[in-house]
Target: Divalent metal cation transporter MntH
Amino acid sequence: MTQQTNHKHKSMDEINNTVSVNANGKFSQKLLSFLGPGLLVAVGYMDPGNWITSMQGGAQFGYILLFVILLSSLSAMLLQSMTVRLGIATGMDLAQATKHYLNKPLAFIFWIIAELAIIATDIAEVIGSAIALDLLFNIPLLIGALITVLDVFLLLFIMRFGFRKIEAIVGTLIFTVLVIFIFEVFIASPEVNDIMNGFIPHQTIITDNSALFIALGIIGATIMPHNLYLHSSIVQSRMYDRNSIKSKAQAIKFATLDSNIQLSIAFVINCLLLVLGAALFYGVNTEQLGGFYDLYNALLHQPVIGTSMGAVMSTLFAIALLASGQNSTITGTMAGQIVMEGFINLKIPNWLRRLITRVIAILPIILCLIIFHGNEAKMEQLLVFSQVFLSLALPFSLIPLQLATNDYRLMGSFKNKNWINTISWILIIILSILNIYLIIQTFQDL
Model:
């Protein structure tokens, strides 16, 4: 028997056990009814903060870092599958499970770190959206940042129509990003053989310090702390039998399939970004690809594809950036609610929760814009700082996840298998070391 039947507080009570599933239908019908939560999780793996790393990797080193994207995506699939089992087997999200292990003072510290991580994520989303608005409509960054407050009310309006509608909107935005980059890669006409060879390990990744640094950036930025809290909660939106081992096993099976399918799409998008960088910029002006504005201008004036097509590709790039930022806003909102309710059992109105988080996120952006007179480079540097903090916060979610999913008292027959324990601990140690290294390098480069 697992903790599910004894746990008092449901995770995200307003969506918990609200989406019906076809438990007795065909395989495809069952899968279709479980598809959705993985879409919201996949958003974190194609966050605007990861775009530059992938495109710079392709521009500087061609296709060899595709292997690193493959490795990091497989790692993400394992860790997200652990959050699926935690949520369905125990009825707890990761915040509740973490609190289960800690005394009140320590739980409070973990809660603050989780909240700061979500604010850091929100900062990246605001910056990405504000830059996209500037690129598309010449809206000043300060005004663009303030406009992003409006998505608070947009999300609340959407949530009134049910959780399935949110999944559909997120899926549409992801599909938009996917189609845009498929089109851009098609126009760039990369060599297929070079792409396939990129998935084979290359010695250069280890021997070249610059390549190693970008590889570490791709791996270290893959797992987002808020995604682990989010996934462990939203998988409980489906109507499976909470007291049946068989029903839980089926829910875990199809929720994991959902996760792997959507993360595969995120994997494809990240590969497309790197391929685009390699096809258009490999060996040419790679030092000019330092930020979103640089990438936009490089696409706009790319001689290989011509002026008119460059204008189309740069505009589509900005649209994809805006779509990605809005997607991340939706998932960040939900993760914030999960963390607050899970750690301290505090329920406040969704609009107030969202407004507080967004205002706190916007304040450092406004200060940065005022102090540095709207300097674009400083804005993008602030985005880098937000990613650094996410790296610091990562072990505070990974270690409780490992401990909880390997606890028989919580998980029962769904506890980790030995091979999962081995691989997950290796991943936790490696990711923590890589993140520390990235943080040191980031401050050294300032």
Summary: The chain has one domain: 3-444.
